[in-house]
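Batch job 17 of 40 flagged for manual review because the log was empty.
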Amino acid sequence: MQDLCGKVAVVTGAGSGLGQEIALACAREGMRLVLADINRAALDDTVRRLAGAEQVCCMCDVADAASVEALAVTAWQQWGGVHLLFNNAGVLSAGPVWSMTVEDWKWIFDVNVMGVVHGIRSFVPRMRAAGQPAHVVNTASLAGLMTMPGSSAYCASKHAVVAISECLAGELRDEGSSIGVSVLCPAFVPTRIADAQRYRPAVALGDDPLTVAYREQTGRAVQSGRISAAEVADMTLAAVKSGEFYIITHPKSRAAIAARHAAMLGPASS
């Protein structure tokens, strides 16, 4: 998809962070937008930053299949089609495996995994029926290619997003579809994802020392990111134009990914 001007992009989690910057980057390309978020005030902030770009906004809970289906219906009613889908909304919670509540696991998987699944199920069949070139970008994370202590649920959810994206790409390729797929795998980017607890189920956070330490460590790591959300958004659109599947935004992370794969394979047999 070399020329994005005039195309329609749907962005979930568009109210802040990476989703907001993706929306702004799409607007700079001259795209028409369908912006979705669970937070109305945050969504309004994105609209103020768009400086008159053609857009429609929808409240959407990606964990709810009906809400995502309504988003797709709105997109087709408003613009007659969608060319670029960013399944971007995501949440994060930290703590050791044994202290993460069942509610935490369900919340993280409902948003991070089922949010992507709902997006694919509501939008991809419509894209296929339209028969036009289109592209799906699923936001995973470096945590979808690596693991780190204190992030079991998040890492597991993002590994699932990578796997879903790989399967989707293969399935579309097997039918000769003109729909491309990318999976976005950034490392730490300064956003408010570490504050996602504000959307967390109303269950007490663990307060044991290790849980607190992991939570604080995660917050510091996110804010220490050296590449901005705006830079990641620009990299993402460039990757869509060039048809890249894995979008790995932080060059230094490649060595860690390679080391992990080497450890999996073990010493070469003689």
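Reviewer: the log was empty due to a logging misconfiguration, but the result itself is present. The chain has a mean pLDDT of 89. Unflagging and moving on to job 18.
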